[in-house]
DNA sequence: AATGAATGAGACTTCATTCAT
DNA sequence: CATGAATGAAGTCTCATTCAT
């Protein structure tokens, strides 16, 4: 399970001076806006550079292609989101609580970074490798925590990776409704409650025991 | 919650003769292959018509645009998948059993119709309206059943639509792993077991009761 | 010694109808003008299509790239020139006479087909494979004739292929002066006389014999 | 007949210090490699400066444009080759011997300076003026020698410039085969023998006399 | 004397769509 | 009902050249 960007990732070109670094960041920011709002294929390099306030040619000083900046974005988002979630659940008393907090943090975070959600999902069709890496990475870290919680008898036994993926699936599909279709949708709070109950039922050990480190 | 194709859907053009019907189906089949294998944007009308064995111009006798045939495909898949799943769970003794059977049926079905999965997911970026309709439709029907089961005390109370979406999310994210990344993945059976436990834990009423119409 | 277009040559795409054939010829004609006048790299597809009176996209119905039409042109010119020269020397009484006639025919032909000369020479830098094929082909046919003449004792013995190449070299370098730099140049006739003397001295058997296979 | 670089040639810019001179030479060397290996149009200033180990901007301190450095290269090669050939034939006892030695020296020299041959030929399409100057210069010097030899009755009478061009043509076309296509080619020695016979037959006075100082 | 980031014009190529047959 | 040649807009990318440091 690859937990590191495939060697094909990361190798962007580009100046390394102070000024260069600034330009690079401007491009990434502009690209996030474009890709998020218009989607990969409707986005054009020229809009990106316009947004960034640089000439078209400048783009290619930093990224070899449209695909490459997209990939860089996906990697960036992976790091950002994981850091954010880690911090959010840092103080959780139990795995169950971590789940509740984590789900809410995820949805709030996505709401504030509208483009992130869309870009990550679209990556499946733009750069499947990066997409896979994104989720594989996320799920692996997640699974690690679940495995530990299983060890402590806090949650139901089972393949932790599958559990992680299931939890991620719940979060992302709730995202569809609340981030994408958010018209006539019940308030987030109510959905969170139901979802949390679902999740906790899904991972908490069956009442009768079975999660108690036993087996 | 739209449960019917928005008026913008469905209105394909096209002859109604016997021969015409055949051509139309050939085009849809070819499009499914192209879109599934190369993605919407890399697919070209000319490849589709080639695959279908008709001239390029013929395409526009049946569909007004590339987007339109894509949408038609999404609708077709919606019908197909729902029918298939209904039949699969028809004989289930309980909601819990229906879930187990349904999840497995879903994954097996997608495996046999490789392109379906991809096309449905990509529709988010090609025709968000159709995408939304696809899942909204699916979730509504699903929610209906869950609501009934709640009424019978078979499952945990809560917003059935949210439950439905969560269940769909679990299924689709398992699909990512087992349909898309299927390299070094544990056998489907094992994952199904964990996932089923997760799902059933997630929807079954808490042991102490509480699903029984009570509360 | 490849005497047939390498498999990479010849495979142009393109409609095969009557109208298609006409368009194709228009494109080839336009390309010849462009390449001849402005050189391969300064020529642009758009000028070519403009000259031909078709839309830009039409170009790619017939040729896969700028390189491909260039190659097609080189092949076409190879056929044209060889046919012309064959016909010109058909009635020559001896090899020596054939050379004289051939050289003159070559120069006159190039003068009437200004672009041909330039395109063939430039092919060395655009498509070395085609360039090689052009001259290899030309030299092989030529060498065949020389070998036969050697057999008849009409000309000096020696590697006929080398002789052929030398003769071609003389012709092409005379072309430089008389076709390309033709400003303050002595009349063609005078140069032809010197060149013919040179060539005939070069190939005729040494007086004392040496072509002794015959005579 | 221009025997001196047209005023448009030669006027490169550039510092005159010790260090500056070194940089200039590094650039010329790098350009020779690039132009020789990839051709004028595929060569890029940035590769040239990279090879030379200087920054891109530095290039324009020494040459006003890509064309200018190319021209400088052609001029340089002209000087180099002429000097080399002069020296090679210096001790030749007769014009005939000089030709034999000269042809061989030419081919050996080109083999050791692979790029020279290609660059000189390509100059026709990059800077026709420089190309013409290159050959005009070469042919004029050559013709001078031939004229003298005619005077001494050593060689056949005729326009010496045409003779010179013919001889150059033979050499350059032998170069095509032995420098460019050198795969399945007979050993250089054998070709040299045939070519020498050809050349000497071509220029030596007809046996019966005619070169005897008469006229 | 040198640097190297930035520029921006321009080229090739693709492809959804139209239309005369 | 079908054909397939033609269209032309749009987009990615390259690269010679400039300029502030």
From TrEMBL, chains A, B, C, D:
UniProt-annotated stretches for the region Disordered: 1-23
Feature: DNA-binding region: 44-63
UniProt entry tagged with the keyword Ribosomal protein: no
Keywords, sorted A to Z: DNA-binding, Transcription, Transcription regulation
Pfam families: TetR_N
Keyword Phosphoprotein attributed: no
InterPro entries: DNA-bd_HTH_TetR-type_CS, Homeodomain-like_sf, HTH-type_TetR-like_transc_reg, HTH_TetR, Tet_transcr_reg_TetR-rel_C_sf
Record domain HTH tetR-type: where: 21-81
Polar residues: compositionally biased ranges: 1-11
UniProt protein name: TetR family transcriptional regulator
């Amino acid at each position: 399970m690859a937990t590191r960007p495939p060697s094909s990732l990361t190798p962007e070109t580009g100046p390394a001076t102070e000024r260069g670094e600034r330009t690079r960041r401007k491009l990434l920011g502009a690209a996030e806006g474009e890709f998020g709002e218009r989607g990969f294929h409707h986005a054009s390099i020229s809009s990106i550079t316009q947004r960034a306030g640089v000439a078209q040619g400048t783009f290619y000083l930093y990224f070899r292609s449209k695909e490459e900046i997209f990939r860089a974005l996906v990697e960036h988002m992976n790091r950002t989101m994981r850091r954010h979630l880690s911090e959010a659940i840092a103080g959780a008393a139990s795995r169950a609580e971590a789940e509740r907090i984590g789900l809410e943090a995820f949805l709030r975070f996505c709401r504030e970074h509208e483009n992130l959600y869309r870009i990550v999902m679209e990556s499946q069709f733009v750069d499947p490798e990066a997409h896979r890496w994104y989720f594989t990475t996320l799920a692996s870290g997640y699974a690690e925590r679940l495995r530990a919680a299983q060890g402590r008898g806090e949650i139901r036994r089972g393949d932790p990776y599958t559990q992680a993926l299931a939890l991620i699936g719940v979060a992302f599909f709730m995202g569809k409704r609340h981030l994408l279709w958010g018209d006539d949708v019940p308030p987030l709070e109510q959905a969170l409650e139901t979802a949390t109950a679902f999740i906790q039922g899904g991972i908490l050990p069956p009442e009768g025991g079975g999660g108690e480190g036993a087996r």
